TrEMBL record:
Residues 427-481 form the PucR C-terminal helix-turn-helix domain. Coiled coil: none annotated. This is PucR family transcriptional regulator. Residues 12-120 form the Purine catabolism PurC-like domain. Gene3D superfamilies: PucR C-terminal helix-turn-helix domain. It comes from the Bacteria. InterPro entries: CdaR-like_regulators, PucR_C-HTH_dom, PucR_C-HTH_sf, PucR_dom. Transmembrane segments: none annotated.
Length: 483
């Protein structure tokens, strides 16, 4: 361990004498270094935890000591018989008042002897901690060779650093913790809540959180875009050597989790094969493949959801552990068979967009897939998972609300807008009135002959006869799409 003031004063060969009460400061706090300076204000050149050695009495002892105390200086040593005999009483009083330990250094003791004692202990402590870090890292590396490598690594880490360690899985729940019982239910909830935004970000990140079990440092595991979990390590009092060991474990834990990716990839390919067999109508083949590994196929009726977005891979990982539904990757899409609650959860958690079909059975999967794809085109930021039931209820004309339809409508109606921007609105009112001039004229507040003239003008501008149903329907669709 590093030097302390108690150890420094105990060195008989140095002949140091404490002048302030033993209650002043913390005599057992580690000393970072010892430094000598007779500057009026040496604090810009000092760090907290250091010992300052002086020979020149300060002009204003109270202000001088106040600055040192506020800066976090651990102790002050005054060398006697260099500038004056004995230590000034004003300096003793100021140090006592501010709780700064003050000791007297006799003339026969050079400051370098005090500095060397502190430096030797600091160096010895650093060597000891580095040696410990090497031994701890070796023990953890050997643990990685045992069966259940991830659990063995985390357990050994907890034992070496004497702190609790927990692993939050990709699903956002605390999967395991060490030592057993060190993380209670409330602490587990706090860790899960703190890990959730890190996992949602999809990027490598770190954070901290306070719990009933003490503060924890959090570090994501896995590559950006496909995080495998979050490592939570009790962080209270961890020094640089312990943090070095934790950094090594982050790499080992990430590697252990990545080793399971091959199995996950195989399951993903199997799910895709089962899904494509279902869509092709090979239900018996799909069931025979799925049931031994993926459990039974869903029972109808169910809805088909098609989801897309950058978080599809993470969503599939989450489904593997958290949902009792059939799902599969189909190209860049994620297909889910179940109710409409799971797709909504995935969209909110992983920023996905998609659509949900009407209730269907296994025989109707191709149609349900088309419905889900059509509904996905209606998804918005406010409604990230659109329902085909809502699309069907809105009618055929609602399908005109697409960029392509608006572009075609704008081109078709451009002659009308160029001639008179009010003309499209007049035509819309006329068509809404089923082409009855008297009714539409009253709604517009104009004479029916004026309305007939405006309709005739529109026919001339568009180059088409609006007396047929087909022409009126086409114009009405363009007006609806441009609205």
């Amino acid at each position: 361990m590093p030097a302390t003031l108690t150890q420094l004063l105990a060195r008989a060969e140095l002949g140091l004498r404490l002048l302030t009460p033993h209650s002043a400061g913390d005599p057992d706090a580690p000393l970072a270094w010892a430094h000598s300076s007779d500057l009026p204000d040496p604090t810009p050149f000092l760090s907290p935890g250091q010992v300052l050695l002086i020979t020149e009495p300060p002009e204003d002892a109270e202000a001088y000591v106040a600055r040192l105390s506020a800066h976090g200086i651990a102790a002050l040593g005054f060398g006697t018989e260099v500038v004056r005999a004995g230590t000034p009483e004003s300096l003793v009083a100021a140090c006592t008042q501010h709780g700064l330990p003050l000791f007297e250094v006799p003339y026969r003791t050079p400051f370098i002897a005090v500095v060397r004692f502190v430096a030797d202990r600091v160096a010895a402590d650093a060597y000891a901690r580095n040696t410990w870090a090497l031994r701890a890292s070796r023990a953890i590396s050997l643990a990685a060779l045992r069966p259940g490598a991830l659990g063995a690594v985390l357990s050994e880490l907890s034992r070496q650093i004497e702190r609790p360690v927990a692993l939050v899985g990709a699903d956002g729940a605390v999967a395991r913790s060490y030592p057993a019982g060190a993380v209670d239910a409330r602490a587990r909830r706090a860790l899960a809540e703190a890990a959730d935004p890190l996992l949602r970000s999809g990027r490598r990140a770190a954070g901290t959180v306070g719990t009933d079990a003490g503060p924890f440092a959090l570090q994501t595991l896995g590559a950006a875009g496909r995080l495998r979990g979050v490592l939570a390590v009790g962080s209270e009092g961890l020094d640089a050597a312990a943090q070095q060991v934790v950094t090594g474990v982050v790499a080992l834990a990430g590697l252990a989790l990545e080793q399971s990716r091959a199995a996950d990839a195989a399951r993903s390919r199997l799910r895709t094969a089962v899904w494509r067999a279902l869509v092709a109508g090979d239900t018996e083949v799909a069931a025979s493949i799925a049931e031994p590994v993926l459990d039974a196929l869903p029972q109808p009726p169910f809805r088909v959801a098609v989801l897309a977005g950058s978080g599809v891979a993470a969503a599939a990982d989450w489904l593997e552990s958290n949902a009792d539904v059939f799902f599969a990757r189909d190209g860049q899409d994620l297909v889910v068979l179940g109710d409409d609650t799971v797709p909504a959860t995935l969209a909110g958690r992983f920023d996905l967009r998609g659509g949900v079909s009407s209730p269907a059975g296994l025989a109707g999967l191709p149609t349900a897939l088309e419905q889900a794809a059509a509904a996905r085109n209606r998804a918005t930021a406010d409604d990230p998972v659109a329902s085909f039931d809502d699309v069907a209820a809105a009618g055929m004309l609602e399908l005109l609300r697409t960029p392509d339809a608006r572009a075609v409508a704008a081109t078709a109606l451009q002659p009308l807008f160029a001639a008179d921007p009010t003309l499209p609105g007049i035509l819309r009112t006329w068509l809404d009135a089923d082409g009855v001039y008297d009714v539409a004229a009253r709604q517009l507040g104009i004479h029916r002959h004026t309305l007939r003239a405006r309709v005739a003008e529109a026919e001339r501008l568009l180059g088409r006869d609006l007396s047929s149903f087909a022409a009126r329907a086409d114009l009405y669709a363009a007006l609806r799409a441009s609205a």
